[in-house]
């Protein structure tokens, strides 16, 4: 078994010994997982540079990851199911999201227990570190990866980092987000290039080499050499996009994170003799959100649900807000937090089933390697959940509409796909700042306040019942050509352009997916920057007269609205490029409280007073809509009152504006 040893470093009560219904108390067990994988095994051959990693005396490649378990103290009370989480940029998220924890709950060594949703049901949660460039800390989980070697020397070569500033500064880290950088190799590097463009698909301009250096500005204003930073005279301009191509002198074997995700499964299925897991878990569900949802898609595309011993790793996957992309998870010099740079994570295939792509000339499907060669036993059941934001960034529709943009695709028998209509990438809430906490970008309009988490956890329960009871989940819901709910983004922008005082983004500067050529994908060794070609179609949900989406699962906030909700939001001028949208953030525009205010504002949308007699009338309509969703199994019955209360709170906010 590739996971050779779990070295426990901490074993403490979870959530202050809080009891979760009949299941009782939970504990958290943290430690280090020690892996040793065979670089010559057929199940591992698609991992880039694995054969160049140092080997032990048995010819195996060793590496370690952080591993954290939250499980019932009384193993007899566990439900036999384990959710294996891929932490997003090192952060544990599944407990906070499924348990509807407070939105301001900090990232901490123990996840906030919220309402205890997972734990009152007896689930165990395992969080496995997989990302090589996460700095070690008690809050974050990561992986220690070996370097690829040629003889006694680490592999070096040309790599690239993308920089998207939201405020002017002279110094930037050579990394995506605040992660470990790939340092510049020693020497002047006169061939290194710093390119800048005004928007994602704009023309590149080469910045003279004399204007920038591998250096950083100190607090005293001095400029000192630094292999981990780039310094630009005059500073990086907010709203513009920079790509730095340079030489580095090391290449971590990034794809070991994918093997860690696979091989922890076999470990969890077996009795361990550690008085932790009883007889092992009957059902394993792999969970990812955003970055790690894209990693799940990469995992599937490489056929990695097939373990070294021939067993199936996971019975099901819940893939959340990943759209149709993969990511920087298995090529030389990959920085896994990268999400926007056009690399191999943006390439065909996008759909689960086999399709033909006239733009790239390729044919294939995401599940080919698992579905082919008699390996159907390795196929997990998959539920994918997206928000409007993944459609507006240009890619999500490609998972279910062909590459021409003209035809709906058949659905794979083991997959379901849902759009959470009108929602932004992260759950919304009243009172949130317009600043994106991940990127620092400021949105122009108030952020989307729609909380989709009740739909999110209903999807998990539907996946569980599909696996354990063979009960099919409710039908997929997303934009389709068949019912005219899939449209181009310009159609929606035209509808928003009728709103008073609203400045829509420039449709020509919205993000797109394009064909990408950066070398031999099979080897994982690329050339930079990528050469982009033809544009794929970017389709989104149509909207109704209020500007709310008509496709997908429509929460009561959409069917019985107090405002207009969108999964996109223009950049505020203070962060530059106001004609573009903020990645991942949406907006909420309340209706006028009464007819007089509506008329004074010139708002074409009916006022709240025209729609609802009072709060009681509104609450009754919301409850009826929530009960209908529960009857269709898109919402759990136990969450009906949660949804109603949240909608009424938003009604009060709209009235009080």
Structural overview:
This protein is an alpha+beta fold and 657 residues long. Among the domains are: 281 residues; 92 residues, no CATH class. The protein is 18% helix and 25% strand. The protein has 13 helices and 30 strands. Strands 1, 2, 3, 4, 5, 6, 7, 19, 20, 23 and 24 form an eleven-stranded mixed beta sheet that branches. α6 links the parallel β23 and β24. α12 runs antiparallel to α13. The termini are far apart.
What is the end-to-end distance? 60 Å
Residue windows where pLDDT falls under 50 for at least 5 positions: none
Task: Provide the β-strand percentage band.
Answer: 15-25%
Oligomer: single chain
Structural class: alpha+beta
- Largest sheet, if any? 11 strands, mixed
- Gyration radius, rounded: 25 Å
Total of helices: 13
Q: How many beta-strand elements?
A: 30
In short:
By secondary structure, the protein is α+β, with helices and mostly antiparallel strands.
């Amino acid at each position: 078994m590739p996971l050779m040893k779990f070295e426990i470093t901490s074993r403490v009560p979870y959530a202050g010994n809080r009891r979760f219904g009949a299941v009782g108390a939970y504990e958290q067990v943290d430690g280090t997982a020690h892996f040793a994988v065979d670089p010559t095994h057929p199940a591992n051959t698609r991992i880039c540079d694995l054969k160049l990693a140092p080997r032990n005396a048995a010819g195996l490649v060793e590496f370690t990851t952080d591993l954290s378990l939250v499980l019932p103290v009384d193993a007899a009370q566990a439900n036999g199911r384990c959710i294996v989480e891929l932490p997003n940029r090192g952060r544990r998220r599944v407990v906070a999201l499924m348990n509807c924890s407070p939105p301001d709950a900090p990232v901490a060594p123990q996840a906030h227990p919220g309402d205890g949703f997972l734990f009152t049901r007896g689930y165990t949660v395992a969080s496995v570190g997989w990302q090589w460039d996460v700095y070690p800390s008690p809050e974050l989980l990561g992986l220690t990866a070996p370097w690829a070697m040629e003889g006694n020397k680490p592999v070096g070569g040309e790599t690239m980092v993308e920089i998207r500033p939201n405020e002017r500064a002279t110094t930037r880290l050579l990394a995506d987000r605040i992660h470990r950088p790939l340092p510049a190799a020693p020497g002047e590097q006169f061939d290194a290039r710093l390119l800048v463009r005004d928007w994602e698909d704009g023309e590149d301009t080469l910045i003279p080499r004399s204007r920038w250096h591998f250096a950083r500005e100190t607090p005293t204003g001095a400029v000192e050499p630094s292999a981990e930073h780039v310094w630009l005279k005059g500073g990086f301009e907010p709203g513009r996009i920079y790509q730095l191509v340079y030489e580095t002198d090391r290449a971590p074997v990034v794809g070991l994170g994918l093997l860690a995700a696979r091989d922890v499964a076999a470990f969890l299925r077996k009795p361990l003799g550690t008085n932790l897991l009883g007889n092992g878990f009957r059902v394993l569900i792999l969970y990812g959100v955003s970055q790690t949802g894209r990693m799940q898609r990469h995992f599937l595309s490489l056929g990695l649900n097939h373990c070294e011993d021939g067993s199936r790793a996971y019975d099901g996957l819940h893939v959340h807000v990943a759209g149709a992309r993969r990511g920087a998870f298995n090529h030389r010099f990959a920085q896994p937090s990268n999400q926007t740079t056009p690399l191999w994570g943006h390439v065909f295939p996008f759909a689960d089933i086999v399709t033909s792509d006239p733009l790239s000339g390729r044919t294939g499907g995401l599940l080919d390697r698992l579905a082919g060669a008699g390996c159907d036993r390795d196929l997990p059941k998959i539920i994918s959940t997206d928000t409007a934001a993944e459609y507006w960034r240009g890619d999500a529709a490609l998972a279910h509409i062909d590459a021409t943009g003209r035809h709906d695709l058949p659905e794979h028998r083991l997959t379901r796909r849902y759009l959470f209509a009108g929602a932004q990438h992260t759950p919304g809430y009243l009172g949130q700042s317009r600043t994106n906490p991940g990127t620092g970008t400021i949105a122009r309009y108030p952020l989307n306040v729609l909380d989709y988490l009740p739909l999110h956890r209903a999807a998990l329960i539907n996946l569980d019942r599909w696996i354990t009871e063979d009960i099919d989940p409710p039908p997929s819901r997303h934009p389709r050509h068949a019912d005219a709910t899939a449209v181009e983004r310009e159609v929606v922008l035209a509808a928003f352009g009728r709103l008073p005082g609203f400045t829509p983004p420039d449709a020509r500067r919205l993000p797109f997916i394009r064909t990408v050529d950066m070398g031999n994908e099979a080897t994982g060794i690329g050339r930079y920057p990528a050469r982009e070609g033809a544009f794929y179609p970017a389709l989104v949900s149509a909207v109704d007269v209020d500007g709310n989406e008509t496709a997908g699962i429509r929460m009561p906030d959409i069917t019985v609205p107090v405002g207009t909700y969108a999964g996109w939001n223009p950049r505020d001028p203070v962060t530059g490029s106001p004609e573009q949208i903020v990645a991942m953030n949406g907006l909420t525009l309340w209706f006028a409280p009464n007819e007089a205010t509506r008329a004074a504002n010139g708002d074409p949308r009916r006022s709240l007073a025209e729609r609802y007699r009072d709060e009681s009338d509104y609450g009754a309509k919301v409850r009826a809509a929530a009960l209908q969703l529960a009857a269709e199994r898109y919402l759990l019955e136990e969450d009906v009152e949660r949804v109603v209360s949240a909608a009424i709170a938003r009604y009060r906010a709209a009235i009080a504006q």
